[in-house]
Amino acid sequence: MERIEDETAAAERPARPGPGPEAAGTALELLVHGVGGTTPQEMLDDPRTVRITGDETAAVYRRADDADAESRPGDHRGRPVPEAYVWCNLTSGNASRALWLLLLPFMVVNLAHWMRPDARRGTRTVRLYGLLVRLVGLTLTVLLVAAACEVALDLAAWQCAGTRACTEDHTWLRFLSDGWWSPPGRRLALAALVPAALTGLLWYLSHRTWNDYESQQPLTRRSEPEEEPGPTGLARPGFWYGRRLVARLRAAHTAAGFLTVAAAVGSAAVREDRRPGGPAVLGTLAWAFDAALVTGALVVLWVVCRRGRSENRLDDQLDETLVRVLPGGALALLGLAVVYAGWPRPDWTSHGRLPGDATFGALVLVQGLLVVALAAVAHLLHRRRPDRRAALRGLAGPAVAMLACALGGVMSGGVAQRVADWLDGTGGTLDGPPVLLTWQASMIPPLLAVVLVLCGWLVRRTVRLRAAETAAVEREYPGEPKDARRTRRIAGVRAMATLTDLAPLIIGVVSAVTLLLGAVALVGASVSGDEPADAAGGTHGFVAGAVETSQAIGSWLIGFGFLLFVTWGRRAYRDPSARRTIGILWDVGTFWPRAAHPFAPPCYAERAVPDLTWRMATWTRATGGRLVLSGHSQGSVLAAAAAWQLPPPVRRRVALLTYGSPLERLYGRWFPAHFGRAALASLHEEIDCWRNLYRETDPIGGPVGLPGDCAPRVDRGALKDPLAYGRTQEHPLPAPILGHSDYRADPAFAEERERLLARLRPDVPGQRATDPGPDAADPHDGHAPAAPPAP
């Protein structure tokens, strides 16, 4: 393996005198917090902390008294030196991050990319899975921009500004109905600034996060063969470095957005110029405009389909020409479309809707077909390597992709419905949004009815499970004076914690119903007139009334949902507690790199994982000491990902302690290709030792549950929670039910940490200054000594 450059390694070391050979006996505990974030003072239980390395965004801290611990190894014998890696500002440290809530559909479809079933063979099928998810992501970009075009171009500039009654009610649009801007083409050209600005904003947000995340290079390692199978891609050298793919996708999606705006602006002018008796020159320009649009769309599709992720090597070669030319060419075509639409046409008037109704229908149809094809590919992959623990039998990715499409539809339909209602006033003035959006709104009440039925079933199941857990709680605390209220509370917390395991069932049912209702809406919109009731009015009056009522309720709900969505984002911008809640959502949802959608919120792990690997590699290189990597909740996922990225010589000097960990319970089920049983078993084999703590009251953490003899060597067994049922000598006050928090307060934590430190090989010599680095050959390579018995 290639060596780490000495200058870089030196820059990562603490700014203090270098440790001497005696530092080899020093032990380090590197703490990684979980979702929601915390402060270094809370993690280290000391008000006086110093930053060892890092910046304001993410850094490693120590107690002030431990800043030079390596130079005083005698002061820390029998206990490790604690360090805290604080990464919460990567996701929730800035109030502007609340605006990322609007990018939720993009984040969800990006998650679908990583949910593919595990498959050691069938590389082409795996690539096809990734391609289909990228195409779904592309349709979401087009849908978002098309919704902006519907609001700005169709409802405001075309319908409202072309109607005298509407402009009298909304005086801010009056300048579009009189004077130089009154021709329809010029109105559309001016309104095109709104969706074009939205596309530019998405490009800017994606590009701004480039340097903060994708530019953080992981440890330099030797490239691996492209077809080399492995238990997980998380151990590959280029997994956490996706600059090239994100840059290509950003260029393609930005171009797709500009082309969508160009099509919306020019389509009305093309329809006008193709009328019988129109100018021959403009008719020729219309054909040229259509040809340019088709060519641009084909180039965008080629870029999206041409290349996926390259994880076996550090892919740092950027496609500079493509990244610049593709968005620039699409923007130039948009400029030509604006000029073409604004060309004077004396007899042109605006009436009805813009000729874009078919766009939303085509998008819904394409999304449905892509999701069905994705489900077929996922099923094929799952059959090749069945995993009974995989969520939805390998169909989690298609189900989540369907939810992303539904979220995109709700957001686009919601804003269109609300703006149409606002502009229309008392009604009857405007034709409103496309009929498909109205049909989609009419599907909201049936979907909510299904969700309510599921919630009722969950409540019933939880009540029954609480009754069963009551007897288990009484058996767990024998000899205690029984308190029925205390028992019911503990049993209720345990029953509620099991709801996490039912998430695959809930998402599967909701996704299937959403797909079915989407198909009904598409068929209804294709056979109906301007209103959903037109499709049923000729068959039965009751059916027509039911459809119309459902449409009215759904239109109100979809608009209310969008307003609630925006209000939540606004509150999060001002309220730190709400911003912290949204930060928790991003902690879970943005762990994965942007592989399917470049406008998704950035992946914080592309900064956090290299931070952790660099810290562990440079510290063990400098001291040769023992290191316990201690991760809670989402921090345990970061810790596992960092351990996979370590070179083998460093990995054998590291012990892993996880608690409240979702590694198998959530990540192993939803992301089997990367956190499945085989991947976690390989992690257990490659690091020196690993212990996992969990509680039955924890709704997130759980056992790793490795097969065979590995399970008892990793999982300690469920910790007692609460620690005491009633008042005892050790707990004179009532002990709290901790659930997912405060694992370090349990005596089992310190016990397991000490056993891990004792298990680590104490005879590993400290590396000399001339050591070539953590990637150099290890004296134990190939003939590692037999490991001592598991704790």
UniProtKB/TrEMBL annotation:
<protein>
    <recommendedName>
        <fullName>Integral membrane protein</fullName>
    </recommendedName>
</protein>
<dbReference type="InterPro" id="IPR029058">
    <property type="entry name" value="AB_hydrolase_fold"/>
</dbReference>
<keyword id="KW-0812">Transmembrane</keyword>
<keyword id="KW-1133">Transmembrane helix</keyword>
<feature type="transmembrane region" description="Helical">
    <location>
        <begin position="436"/>
        <end position="459"/>
    </location>
</feature>
<feature type="transmembrane region" description="Helical">
    <location>
        <begin position="363"/>
        <end position="382"/>
    </location>
</feature>
<feature type="transmembrane region" description="Helical">
    <location>
        <begin position="502"/>
        <end position="525"/>
    </location>
</feature>
<feature type="transmembrane region" description="Helical">
    <location>
        <begin position="188"/>
        <end position="205"/>
    </location>
</feature>
<feature type="region of interest" description="Disordered">
    <location>
        <begin position="754"/>
        <end position="791"/>
    </location>
</feature>
<feature type="region of interest" description="Disordered">
    <location>
        <begin position="216"/>
        <end position="235"/>
    </location>
</feature>
<feature type="transmembrane region" description="Helical">
    <location>
        <begin position="128"/>
        <end position="148"/>
    </location>
</feature>
<keyword id="KW-0472">Membrane</keyword>
<feature type="transmembrane region" description="Helical">
    <location>
        <begin position="394"/>
        <end position="416"/>
    </location>
</feature>
<feature type="transmembrane region" description="Helical">
    <location>
        <begin position="251"/>
        <end position="270"/>
    </location>
</feature>
<feature type="transmembrane region" description="Helical">
    <location>
        <begin position="325"/>
        <end position="343"/>
    </location>
</feature>
<feature type="transmembrane region" description="Helical">
    <location>
        <begin position="553"/>
        <end position="570"/>
    </location>
</feature>
<feature type="region of interest" description="Disordered">
    <location>
        <begin position="1"/>
        <end position="26"/>
    </location>
</feature>
<feature type="transmembrane region" description="Helical">
    <location>
        <begin position="282"/>
        <end position="304"/>
    </location>
</feature>
